[in-house]
Amino acid sequence: xxxxxxxxxxxxxxxxxxxxxxxxxxGAIQLAKLRPQTDMRSAxxxxxxxxxxxxxxxxxxxxxxxxxxxxxxxxxxxxxEGLALDxxxxxxxxxxxxxxxxxxxxxTQATAGPFPTLRTMLDGCHSFARETKEIRDKIDDSxxxxxxxxxxxxxxxxxxxxxxxxxxxxxxxxxxxxxxARYLQERVITERGGRQVLVVxxxxxxxxxxxxxxSSGSGASLFLEPLSTVEINNEIVALQENELAEVKxxxxxxxxxxxxxxPDLRHTLTAAANIDxxxxxxxxxxxxxxxxxxxxxELQIExxxxxxxxxxxxxxxxxxTHDTDSKNPTSAVPVDLRITAPNSALVITGPNTGGKTVAxxxxxxxxxxxxxxxxxxxxxxxxxxxxxSIFADIGDEQSIATNLSTFSGHIxxxxxxxxxxxxxxxxLVDEVGAGTDPVEGGALxxxxxxxxxERGAHIIATTHDEALKAYGATxxxxxxxA
Length: 482
Fold this sequence. Notes:
The protein is an alpha/beta fold. The chain has helices at 3-8, 11-19, 25-32, 40-59, 71-78, 87-108, 116-122, 129-138, 151-176, 178-181, 227-259, 262-287, 313-319, 356-371, 406-420, 438-454, 466-474, and strands at residues 184-192, 195-201, 210-215, 221-226, 294-295, 301-306, 335-339, 345-349, 383-384, 389-393, 425-429, 458-463, 478-481.
C-alpha cells in the first residue's frame, strides 16, 4: 500500500485515534504499525477478530490490563543480565502479569461467547502466579522491601534498630545534660552526611569534644558529632550499607526469577500486545458505531450511508479537534457510494463546498480501514473489494523546491500510479485534468479515466468539467454521480 495515499487520505489520523485506546505501551507500539492488508483473506480475518472483540465488550466488562507507564524501560532492564530492578518496577510488572492472567480468566468465563480468536491469542500466556506472589510478599504497597524478605535482612535491621536507639539515647544525654545543653544553639538532633549530629554555638566549638561536619549559613552554629557517638555512627553507616546490599540482592533475585522464564515472558507479552491491539480496534468501532463490511471477490464498491470518520464528533473529540459550536457540533452527512459491475469508473460532480472531495476521501479511507481490520461507519450491507494498490491524487501538488507546478505535480502523480499499478487497484483523483486549459484539461481527464479502466483499475474522479460530466453520463462502464 502506498504511503502517499495513506497520507492523502489521513489514515495516520485514524491510527492515532485507535492507538489512543491502547491500555499498554506494547499495544500502542503495535497499533502504530497498523497498515491495510492487500490480501483479502488476511483482511477478513482481521475484521472478524475485531467483530468478535466488539461482541465481547458488548456483553462483558472491559479488559483491565494494569500496565505501568514505564513498562518499556522495565523490559529493557530485564533484558540486561545482572541488573536489579527497583521495587516499583518489580511491583509494576507483577501487577501487569497478574492483570494478563485475570484477562485470560475473564475471556474463559465470558458470556455471549464463544470467543475463539481471543482465547487463541491468550493461549500464549503463561502463569506467573508464583513469581508475582513472591514479589508482593517481599515488596509491600509502599514499595518497601519487608524485613522478612530474608533472614539476613531481618538480622541487619534488628541490629540497625538497636544501634539507632543507642545513638539516640547517647545524643539525648547531651540535650538534657546541664553541662552540655548550654553549649547548644538548639536542642535538636539533625543529620549531616548521613551521620547524627548536634547543633553547637560557634563560640563553644571546643566545649564538647567531637568532629565538625560543617556550619550553618549564618556561621553562628556548627554541626558537631560528639566523639562518644563516632563509633556508633560508624556501625550504623556500615549496617546501612549492608542493608542496601541485601535489599539489592533480594531485588536482583526476584528479577532473575523472571529472567529465567524469558521465553514464557516473551510469549505472554506478545499475547498481551495482541489483545490490547484488538480491544483498541473494538473500542474504536464502538466509538463510531462501525460495522464489519463484506469483502467480495467481485470488483465492486458499495458503501451505504457512509460517513467520513474524521467528521464524526466523537472521533474529533478523541483527536482533540473541538468544534466551534459545542452545542451543535459538525457531523458527517451519510452518503451512498457505489461502483458495481459492469461499471469500473465513477465521476462525481457538484458545486464547490458540495462535498465531492469528502466523498472521494470517504471511499478511500473506509477501504483502507476495512483492509486494516477496522470497522467502518456505514450501514449493514456495505461491500468492498480488497485492493492490492490504492492511489490518491488529492490537493495541490505544487512544489517550488522540485520545480513542479500544480498541473505538473498532478501529472507526476498520475504517471507514478500508472507505473506502480497492481490489480485490483483503486484510483482516486480530485479535480481530474484541472490546472490547465479547460478544453485540454477535459480531454486529458477523459483520457486518464479511460486509460485506468483499460488497465483494469477502478477509478473515482471529481470534476467541474462539463465535457467530463457528459463523458460519465454517456459512456459504458462509467457512472456519473452528483
